[in-house]
C-alpha cells in the first residue's frame, strides 16, 4: 500500500512540474525568449496531462488544469501597444 501512495505522490509531483514548466514557457514565449510554437505545443501537452489527471481523480487533475489555464491566458493575452 505504501508503494501505491508513493506512485500517486510521484505522479502528482510530475504533473505539478509540468504545470510549472508550462507557465514558465508561456512567460518566456511572451518575452520572445522562446518561439511561441514551443510554448503552444507544451501547453497542449499540459492539456493532455490535465485530461489524464482528471480522468483519474479531480484532485490529481486540478494542478495541471490550473497550469493549463494560466499558460493559455499568458500565451493568448494581447500584446501591449508601444507608446508613440
Task: Report what the structure shows.
This protein is mainly alpha-helical and 84 residues long. The chain has one domain. It is built from three helices and no strands. The model has no long low-confidence stretch (mean pLDDT 93).
Concise structural overview:
This protein is mainly α and 84 residues long. The protein has one domain (2-76). The chain has helices at 2-30, 36-56, 58-76.
List the helices and strands and how they pair.
Blueprint: H1 2-30, H2 36-56, H3 58-76
Helix pairs in contact: 1-2, 1-3, 2-3
Fill in the keyword field for this structure.
84 residues, mainly alpha, elongated
- SS-derived structural category: mainly alpha
> In percent, how helical is the residue content?
over 70%
- What is the terminal separation in angstroms? 64 Å
Beta-strand content bin: under 5%
Poorly predicted runs of 5 or more residues? none
What is the domain tally? Answer: 1
Q: Major sheet: size, sense and barrel closure?
A: none
Oligomer: single chain
Q: What characteristic shape results from the CA principal axes?
A: elongated
Radius of gyration: 15 Å
Mean pLDDT: 93
How many helices in DSSP terms? 3
Number of E strands: 0
Question: Helix-strand pattern, N to C?
Answer: HHH
Amino acid at each position: 500500500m505504501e508503494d501505491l501512495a508513493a506512485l500517486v505522490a510521484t505522479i502528482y509531483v510530475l504533473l505539478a512540474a509540468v504545470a510549472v514548466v508550462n507557465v514558465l514557457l508561456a512567460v518566456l514565449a511572451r518575452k520572445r525568449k522562446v518561439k511561441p510554437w514551443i510554448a503552444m505545443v507544451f501547453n497542449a501537452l499540459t492539456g493532455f496531462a490535465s485530461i489524464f489527471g482528471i480522468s483519474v481523480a479531480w484532485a490529481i487533475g486540478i494542478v495541471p488544469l490550473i497550469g493549463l489555464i494560466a499558460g493559455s491566458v499568458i500565451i493568448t493575452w494581447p500584446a501591449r501597444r508601444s507608446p508613440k
